Amino acid sequence: MRLATLLRLSLAVQVGCGALLAAASLPDGTSPWVALAIGLAVPPAAHGAVLGIEFAIAAAVDPRRPRAPLLHVLAVWLRETSASLRAFAWRMPFFAGFAEPPIERDRERPAVLLVHGYLCNRAVWKPWLDARGIAGSNVATVDLTPPFGDLDGYADLVHAAVERLRAASGAEQVAVVAHSMGGLALRCYLRRYGGDAIARAITIASPHHGTLLARFGHGRNARQMRPDSYFLGALAAGESADTRAKFVCIATQDDNLIVPRTSPLLEGARHHVIDGVGHLASIEDRRVWAIVEREIAATHRASARVEQVPPSSSSSRSAEAAEKPGAASPR
User: Fold this and answer.
1) Which domains does the chain have, with CATH numbers?
2) What is the pLDDT of residue 235?
3) 3-state secondary structure string across the chain
């Protein structure tokens, strides 16, 4: 079953059950619209309650030092609840098939692939694309299916999306921006296919070292994201320093889902740490967008400089040096 269908069924069950319970509890003669209104209030209440529990667990297991003021915590919770409700009750159930911006065949433009996280689909990136995030780039998305599958199985989906984007845009390399579990799917891709096609790997709130809350998740991918999983150990053991150097890791000190909150920081990568935003809301955070745009622009400029160096320049310099008296012969 596709995730969008699963989310629509979940919404229907929540609203229907809430309305039926309200109708059975309300006094006789009460308008049925009141029961329906109560049913419609169930999804927001459920999101707020679940997220409140997540924030409480995260604060207990990995508290901020010094502790954040109560108003700060409430603001982050409200923002995360709003982002979660819009994503899970609107965008992902009903807009999973939204049209992406057209890809222009121009190898001078950066090519960017967006990879979503656990229990999500490509529609989580819709606000970013609607706001024309990563301006001047060819941007594509990918769906990781099935939603509760093996993380290693997602490597082939990422590979196919990378190759489609390269073929459509003409770009030799692609920058990948991955949220949450998508960062692990990206690392699985790099382990299987290597990094020749990847210019930069940018992960946002990804559980590189696992998360304690994965114990409450469903599916093989959730089990693989547990901190003590064999999968994570094997994934880290198979990575080279060159692979890690491609990574830029973004973490938030107020993450409600990735615990401990240092888990998104991968050794050997560049790090950016922000605060005042939760796990899913980090996708919509302007500071995150700015970091991503700067990293992609810097990578693209560096790549362009490398391409401008004449291929024969290094060999001609070596030949000139060899002709000089006393020059050491190459070994």
Assistant:
1) 3-94 (no CATH), 111-304 (3.40.50.1820)
2) 97
3) CCHHHHHHHHHHHHHHHHHHHHHHHCCCCCCHHHHHHHHHHHHHHHHHHHHHHHHHHHHHHCCCCCCCCHHHHHHHHHHHHHHHHHHHHHHHHHCCCCCCCCCCCCCCCCEEEEECCCCCCHHHHHHHHHCCCCCCCEEEEECCCCCCCCHHHHHHHHHHHHHHHHHHHCCCCEEEEEECHHHHHHHHHHHHHCCCCEEEEEEECCCCCCCHHHHHCCCHHHHHCCCCCHHHHHHHHCCCHHHHHCEEEEEECCCCCCCCCCCCCCCCCEEEEECCCCCHHHHHCHHHHHHHHHHHHHHHHHHHHHHHCCCCHHHHHHHHHHHCCCCCCCC
